[in-house]
Amino acid sequence: MTTYTTASTVEEFRQHLAGIHARIAAACKRAGRDPATVRLLPVSKTVPEERIRHAYAAGCRRLGENKVQEAHRKWQAMSDLPDLGWAIIGHLQTNKAKLVAEFTSEFQALDSLRVAKALDTHLQALGRSLDVLVQVNTSAEASKFGLAPDAVEAFVKQLPAFASLRVRGLMTLALFSADAAKVRPCFVRLRQLRERLRQSAPAGVVMDELSMGMSGDFELAIEEGATTVRVGQAIFGARAVPDSAYWPPVGA
Ligand SMILES: *Cc1c(COP(=O)(O)O)cnc(C)c1O
To answer: Could you tell me which CATH number the domain at 10-238 has?
Structure first.
């Protein structure tokens, strides 16, 4: 088990971020990739405002949050930081689409037409548009969120109907395991799916992004082509809230 130390000062955030960027660079080197092609999205769920402000001072300009209401609260509290953007990376219910449309820069967990429709309606009313990623379930037995890989092509074909959604690519959560032999195939599956979709995606749908990899597996994800890694605990410190609060296992 890796232990994640908590960053509480600007200096500690600088150190943690520098450490992650060094690990990203090393993984890129192994994979023959340019580190500029990998975006680090720090994930600040459960982290209170005071420490988020230190992360901002250390350079963070976009943060990932799993739950809409928590993100919205933080956005309001930190409205004095207008260049701090928010990415929703967790499952969305249609009744919260209005809130997402109001303040977010990015939504990474699109997995139903109902949510696409609700987002589009509210975004159009506000005259906004939104970058979105389609969430794919690459670990069938382990998670109940995201589309089955086989369903993604037909789903993506429907998305041009929602003019305010700028489709940028795919997102996944890998199987939770310390065993790379089990985790890596999830990332490979997402990359191969993107390659296939690039042939068939309708006009206006861009299949560039692969958002995959978290604190425990982002280096593997980079080796398999991740363009965004979503890293929480390795930057902010260990969370007290168990992961099952965010991605309940099948049957829960
Ligand atoms: C919390 C979360 C992460 C980051 O997980 P860490 O273990 O904190 O790095 C990544 N993706 C999603 C969807 C999350 O909810």
So the answer is: 3.20.20.10
